[in-house]
Automatic annotation (TrEMBL):
One of its GO terms (molecular function) is arylsulfatase activity. Keywords: Hydrolase. Residues 29-366 form the Sulfatase N-terminal domain. The conversion to 3-oxoalanine (also known as C-formylglycine, FGly), of a serine or cysteine residue in prokaryotes and of a cysteine residue in eukaryotes, is critical for catalytic activity. This is Sulfatase N-terminal domain-containing protein. The modification 3-oxoalanine (Ser) is found at residue 90. InterPro entries: Alkaline_phosphatase_core_sf, Sulfatase, Sulfatase_N. It comes from the Bacteria.
Length: 501
């Protein structure tokens, strides 16, 4: 198990909190969760710092978004270098994040499904323990309603006036009935009052100020930088002069590779999409700065846990792909940063793998709140404190693709709707099995091959690793009722790998 932390001497006030095992009512921290949509981790400065040059700058040295406010959170808190979605599409990942359950156990194994009534969200647990809870922005856990403002079910968030189910429009207006999206609006007509990222931030700041006596939990879910790649002025032209290069992985031959890795059908206009994508991220970072200023102005910054994360990544032309839905890191790996000045070490990078399923049990444990249900996810709160996990801890996470083939208007350069796979991921390796008859099992040595181009599955030097990870997948599938391991092809390949040990 790898675990890297900076050496820090804890102040006496922090030691007393950790030794006591929790917080008194007056110490109970506020919580702000800033959640983006379809966010490639390489676009954040704090993640580029963790990567070699060729990994940090896949679109060229000049293709960089400066993200000082998000970076500040990382430098003053804990950054997980390898956090993964349970399924790298919106609804399943969000459901796992909210419920601590795998997709097959929370009722949301593809987009536009409804989170099970039996799932107890972290919002509900916090509310039952005296927190004022508010949710602002995109939800995507209440079926096909679009946009569906203020759903009847609040998912544990008492103030859900600015919660909406799904959709990606670029202008919000206030009406007598509440907020509404202008679906016909030109993004160039939007400003800091009407562009969704700014608008939702304003509502979050108002919620924070109303509840600054605490404790409160505010979940702020930006619908960006998800496509359509459009952003308001002046962000729309900030990166228009950049000459985006094709990532080296986009130029590789995909012959003989699994269906989930096929790409190389990129449109000529997509460099403009990248400039707009960067602009959306810059707008997000500026609004993170607004949140930090609001917390400081209210005098509660030090006693507020701030989490920055996303539901999944975006391939952003890596491997000739856009969007998400595949096990490759640019799709499945998400930023996860947590900062808590009053109760957490600073400047720590965690190299253990984390799943979004681990968030809810970890948050509740860190806040000393006893869960009322059983979670699939693990309690990683010790890592949040910069401490080591028990020796028995197994450093591995599991991912799966969406199950049905869904009609989509995406072009052929995205494989999100035509892949059926399951993966086991450790800090060093990623093993993926696919249901498709022509797809070979794929093992990536993430340390030697971070571009994920070389298949080590048949390499005799990796036989024991393949066998161990296959056994881990089998154990996971049986323990957590994942039907994917029962698919005849995958089942046979897993058993064969185990027997070859």
């Amino acid at each position: 198990m790898k675990h890297k932390i900076n050496k820090v001497i804890l102040p006496a006030s922090l030691l007393s909190v950790i030794v006591s095992g929790g917080f008194s009512q007056t110490q109970q921290p506020n919580i702000v969760i800033i959640h983006t949509d379809e966010h490639n981790f390489r676009t954040l400065g704090c993640y580029r710092e963790c990567l070699q040059n060729e990994q940090a700058f896949p679109w060229g040295k000049e293709a960089v978004v400066e993200t000082p406010h998000i970076d500040r959170l990382a430098h003053q808190g804990v950054l997980f270098t390898r956090c993964y979605a349970t399924s790298p599409v919106s609804s399943p990942s969000r459901a796992s994040f909210m419920s601590g359950l795998y997709p097959q156990n929370n009722g949301v194994w593809t987009n536009d499904m409804v989170l099970s009534d039996a799932a107890v969200t972290f919002g509900e647990s916090l509310r039952q323990n005296g927190y004022a809870t508010g949710y602002i922005g995109k939800l995507h856990l209440n079926g096909k309603g679009r946009p569906e403002w203020h759903p009847r079910r609040d998912f544990g968030f008492s103030d859900n006036r600015y919660m909406y189910n799904r959709g990606h429009w670029k202008k919000i207006e206030e009406t007598a009935e509440g907020p509404t999206f202008r679906t016909d609006a030109d993004v160039k007509s939007t400003d800091e009052q009407t562009f969704p990222t700014d608008y939702f931030t304003t509502q979050a700041i108002e919620f924070i100020n109303r509840h600054k006596e605490g404790p409160f939990c505010c979940m702020l879910c930006f619908p960006d930088p998800h496509s359509a790649n459009l952003v308001r002025p002046p962000y729309d032209t900030m990166y228009s002069r950049i000459r985006f290069k094709e990532p080296a992985t986009a130029l590789t031959d995909t012959t003989g590779r699994p269906a989930w890795s096929h790409g190389n059908n990129l449109k000529a206009d997509q460099p403009e999409d990248m400039a707009q994508y960067f602009g959306m991220i810059k707008c997000i970072d500026d609004n993170v700065g607004r949140i930090l200023d609001a917390l400081k102005g209210a005098g509660i910054l030090d006693n507020t846990i701030i989490i920055f994360t996303s539901d999944h990544g975006d391939m952003c032309r890596q491997h000739g792909l856009i969007n998400k839905g595949v096990p490759l890191d640019d799709s499945s790996r998400v930023p996860f940063i947590i900062s808590y000045p009053a109760g957490m070490r600073q400047g720590i990078r965690i190299e253990n793998v984390m799943s979004v399923t681990d968030f809810t049990p970890s948050l509740l444990s860190f806040c000393n709140i006893r869960p009322t249900t059983q979670y699939d996810g693990r309690d990683l709160s010790l890592l949040w404190k910069g401490e080591k996990l028990p020796e028995k801890y197994k450093d591995i996470v599991f991912m799966r693709a969406i199950t049905p083939k869904i009609k989509s208007d995406w072009d052929e350069s995205t494989t999100a709707m035509r892949t059926k796979w399951i993966s086991a991921v450790t800090p060093e390796y990623k093993l993926t099995y696919s249901e498709y008859a022509s797809d070979v099992p794929w093992l990536t040595d993430l340390k030697k091959d971070p571009d994920e181009l070389v298949n080590c599955y048949r390499d005799p030097a990796y036989k024991e690793i393949v066998s161990r990870l296959a056994a881990d997948l089998k154990e996971y599938g049986e323990q957590y009722n994942d039907p994917r391991i029962k698919h005849p092809k995958i089942q046979q390949e897993i058993l064969s790998a185990i027997l070859k040990k």
